Amino acid sequence: MHPNIESADTDGALADAHEHSTAILDILDDFAARATGLDATQRAVMNILDDFDVERRKVEVVNEELRGQIVERIRVEETLRSASIAAEAAGARIDAAQRAVLNILDDATTETLRLNDTQRAILNILDDDEGERQQFASTQKAILNILDDSADEKSQSKDLQLAALNILDDVEIERQKVEYMNGELREQIVERTRVEEALRRASAATEAANRELEAFSYSVAHDLRAPLRSIDGFSQALLEDCAEQLPQEGVTYLGFVRESAQHMAQLIDDLLSMSRVARSEFNRSTVNLAAVARHVVTRLMRDHPDRSVELIIPQEIMVAGDARLLELALENLLGNAWKFTRKRTPAHIEFGEMPDGLPTVYFVRDNGAGFNMAFAGKLFAVFQRLHTVTEFEGTGIGLANVERIIHRHGGRIWAEGEVDRGATFYFTLEEAA
Amino acid sequence: MTTATILLVEDNSKDEALTLRALKKAGITNEVIVTRDGAEALDYLFCTGAFADREPSALPTVALVDLNLPKISGHEVVRRIRADSRTRLLPVVILTSSNEDEDRTKGYIAGANSYVRKPVEFGAFAGAVQQLGLYWLVLNERVPPVTGNRTGTGTASSHEARSSDTNV
Fold first, then answer.
1. Which of A218, A258, A261 sits opposite B100 (nearest CB)?
2. pLDDT category, A30, cuts 50, 70, 90?
3. In contact, A389 and A375? CB cutoff 8 Å
């Protein structure tokens, strides 16, 4: 294409064009220079933004740590609730953890302050370049948006802080509860320790007392009888070997000496038997009380062949109790019946059980000397007798012993009687329902 | 064996006198060797101490042993009698005031042949001693002597602790 253009016009046009292009180039240069300045400012801002991002990430890390701490808090709190026995130690741990959380919260506050400083630094830079600020208002707005985001982050961090403080408040309440429980536990432990100590002392005292009783019983059994044997034996020797030299009174007195020695020996035996009833082990088994009664009566008949007694004993009375103790009880009850019917002909002794009644009532009945009901209360007391030794021999221990045996079975014993019309002793072997 | 003897182990001199009197009244005139404590009784049986030159084969026919003895208790005396081959078959009767279950059980476990309680009333006491003497010296058949080991029979009386002197 070759347009037909005049050269002068062309030259002028070319000069104009050159001038225009130079101006444009100048403008472009100027623009480039401004652009370069802008770039530097932009880079500075970008750097600041980068720095700011780093700070924000730090805050995030701190927040993450905070969240981790809060989770840990909750876990510690759970541990506290479930493990009240180790609560003291847990309490100490709570304190430490609390301090750690507060330290972290302090750190977070420091971070927030640093963030504010950075913000202020950015604003200063922006203030320094008023023109730039107008040109890059959008950039500034973007930065401010970012800063808004940062403010959001900050308020979120504050919320988290508040939440953490609330949790710490809750933890504090829980800790107070735990402390209260600990206090109660400590009191219980102190009380329990006191009771245990009292028990231990009581049981030691009982053991010591039992050992003493054993030693005492043994001494009584062995050592007290020997002198009595001498008193009785040598009185008898005197009576036998020196009878010619003794006046009748002397013979009578020696008889009293022997009677007393024998009575004392009987007392010792009965007391020992009583102590044995008290300290012997209780072995419960099924016992045919009727068979025991027949056994006891057989012995009485053998020892007193001159006596004739009408006996009524059923075939079988099954009870639960200590066979040995029950035999001792029946020995005493039937022995009494045997003794106090001595002056009766015919003598009647009956052992049996009442037709009804819960618990079952057993009885030993005789038609012997009986007793005045006014003195019934004295029957079972130790050394209490309702007859003189000359009337009916005895030590006043037998029925006391029977009562102990019945009580050891959980039962009770009582008696009915009338002078010269006999006596009936009733007993049960288990507690009333 | 013609001489049946009784070894009485008794620390109470009055009980000793009563026992000897009861034996005499029962017509039992056999020699009674009296030792006053457990150690002396064992010395006598095993020919040691004061009885070192006693003829070992001459054992008593029966030993009546009290329980509460000085030095060595009656239970221990019975145990040692049973533990030694020379005396393990010797009839041993515990003769005591004690009627404690524990003493009885321990006595039988130690190896006593019999356990008799001394009654306080002299008639009963004399009766018990008489029955013991008659049973162990007359009724009961002794262990046969070991042949060739009975050379010194009859010389025992010259070594005894204290011959019966029943002038009570």
1. A218
2. confident
3. no
Domain boundaries, chain A: 11-197, 283-427
Give A93's pLDDT tier (boundaries 50, 70, 90).
Answer: low
Q: Which two tokens stand for residue B35?
A: 């030792």
Rounded Cα distance, A361 and A416, in Å: 14
Between chains, do B120 and A265 touch, taking CB under 8 Å as contact? yes
Contact A77, A165 (CB under 8 A): no
CB contact at 8 A, A32 and A129: no
Chains A & B: contacts with CB separation below 8 Å: 59
Query: What are A77's two structure tokens?
Result: 């709190």
Distance CA A202, CA A394 (A): 37
Give the whole-angstrom CA distance, residue A56 versus residue A53.
5
The two tokens of residue A177 are 């509860």
Q: Is A265 within 8 Å of B121 when comparing Cβ atoms?
A: yes
CA distance B4 to B6: 7
Average pLDDT over residues A155-171: 83
B12 touches chain A (CB under 8 A): yes
| A223 Cβ under 8 Å from any chain B Cβ | yes
Across the strands, what pairs with A322?
Answer: A284
Q: How far is CA A277 from CA A180, A325, A380, in A?
A: 51, 7, 15
B67 touches chain A (CB under 8 A): yes
Tokens at B126, concatenated? 């004399």
Q: Can you read off the two tokens belonging to residue A7?
A: 């050269």
Res. B99 pLDDT band, cuts 50 70 90: confident
A91 min Cα distance to partner chain B (Å): 59
- Contacting residues of A for B118, CB less than 8 Å apart: 225, 229
Residue A80 binned pLDDT confidence (cut-offs 50, 70, 90): low
* Residue B60 and residue B6 in contact, taking contact as beta carbons nearer than 8 Å: yes
ipTM of the complex: 0.73
Distance from CA of B12 to the nearest CA of A (A): 8
Residue numbers in A near B167 (CB within 8 A): none
Rg (CA), chain B: 15
CATH number of B6-137: 3.40.50.2300
CA distance A225 to chain B (A): 7
Q: Is B14 on the interface with A (CB under 8 A)?
A: yes
Nearest to A226 among B15, B121, B123 (CB): B15
Q: Which residues contact A192 (CB under 8 A, 6 or more apart)?
A: none
Residue B165: the pLDDT is: 44
Selection from A334, A323, A349 nearest residue A405 by Cα: A323
Q: What is the CATH number of domain A283-427?
A: 3.30.565.10
Alpha helices (H) along B63-136: 74-83, 101-110, 122-133
- Contact partners, residue A84, CB within 8 Å, separation at least 6: A178, A181, A182, A185
Residue type (1 letter), A267: L
Name the residue ranges covered by the structural domains of chain B. Answer: 6-137
Q: Which of A365, A381, A343 is nearest to A418 (CA)?
A: A365
The residue of chain B with its CA nearest to that of A275 is B100
Provide the residue count of chain A: 433
Phi/psi for A315 (5° steps) reads -65, -40
